[in-house]
Amino acid sequence: MPTSETSGEARSETIARPPDRAWMSRRIPANPSRILLGLISPIGDTLLATPALAALRRTFPQAEIAALVAPSNAGILSGNPDVNRLIFAPASGTASQTRRFLDALRALRHEQFDLIISFSGVSALTTRLTHPRTPRMFLDLPRWWFLAGGDAALRERHAVDQYLRALAPLVAPPPADSEARVPRIHLAAQDRAQARELLREEGIAAAGPLIAMHLGGDGFNGRKRWAPERFAAVANALVERHDAHVLFIGGEEDIERSTEAAALLDRNAHVLAGRASLKVTAALIERAMLYIGNDSAPLHIAGAVGTPAVGVFGPSDWVEFAPASPKAPAPRVVHSDLACSPCFRFVGNDPMWKVNTCYSFACLNAITPEAVLATATELLAETQTEPPAATTPALAD
Description:
Elements: H1 4-12, E1 14-16, E2 27-29, E3 34-39, H2 43-48, H3 50-59, E4 64-69, H4 74-77, E5 85-88, H5 97-109, E6 115-118, H6 121-130, E7 136-138, H7 152-155, H8 159-165, H9 189-201, E8 210-214, H10 228-242, E9 245-248, H11 255-262, E10 269-271, H12 278-287, E11 290-294, H13 297-305, E12 309-313, H14 318-321, E13 332-335, H15 362-365, H16 369-382
Parallel strand pairs: 3-4, 3-6, 4-5, 6-7, 8-9, 8-11, 9-10, 11-12, 12-13
Antiparallel strand pairs: 1-2
């Protein structure tokens, strides 16, 4: 643990904020020894921030790096060597969520940090309340983000690069190595053992081919979710070809849609949604030969663990949210070409006063099961697991 003297030395040497760095304090420490990362974020966003955490750790290997997280996204960072400890907001306990959040604020006030890096709006507000004078860095947002939607440069920057840019010029330049930009999740032997046990309970042979599917995605008020019957049509065709078992994964909120899709499969359907922790779910995805899902956290987990993945993108901006993988071939993205799509972005959305009322699902309805199946077939062929076949398997009516 760094001493208070070391902390004082870190504060004495500072970096002046460049004129174009509006997302930084005017002075930041050049060699911070205690860093707080504000990561009260959705699960997928937390995963996309992990390359920035790795860059920060490479730059300051001796620093104590704490992450402020919610219980829902903490699993992404558990076991991550780039973070020394997790601070929960709300705090654990049996009291109301409001009371536990206030308890977390009170505890956080007693902590001392040389630098705060906020990766979400909630984190920025929380740390402002507890440490108003601590130097800070945060995401590069339009100056008047609540009035205007931003420019093309912001919209063309991937979410991973957005997090990396938040560290400039403290960590510069951004890593040129493509693998350094791949999100990462650290699985333990216990996570993989629990995944194997869950498969045994389902009567699935250890060496059998698996296809993981996630039909959920709470972001954008649920408007990113492709129809269960379309997932089922793709699954049936792939089961026919590979005799694979299909794992419908996700949280408790995904059980209903998973059950609906599983009922449409002729055979080999397994609803595992709500039955596995986040890390065990990641271990299940790791064991699969193919992953298919909406723009949501499990899609990026598939990329992180190197499972061939197909992402179905409706309103989401595939430029900002396309999954990355440490292995070849790269994950695939299937999207429509409607003029109004995409309309949901990481940065550069419409202004807050312009409410998006579209619930037509036109962009998702324009994506056919045939298109997703063709993409999955092509991806499997590139992984050399695809057996020779003259034609793509037919879709069930």
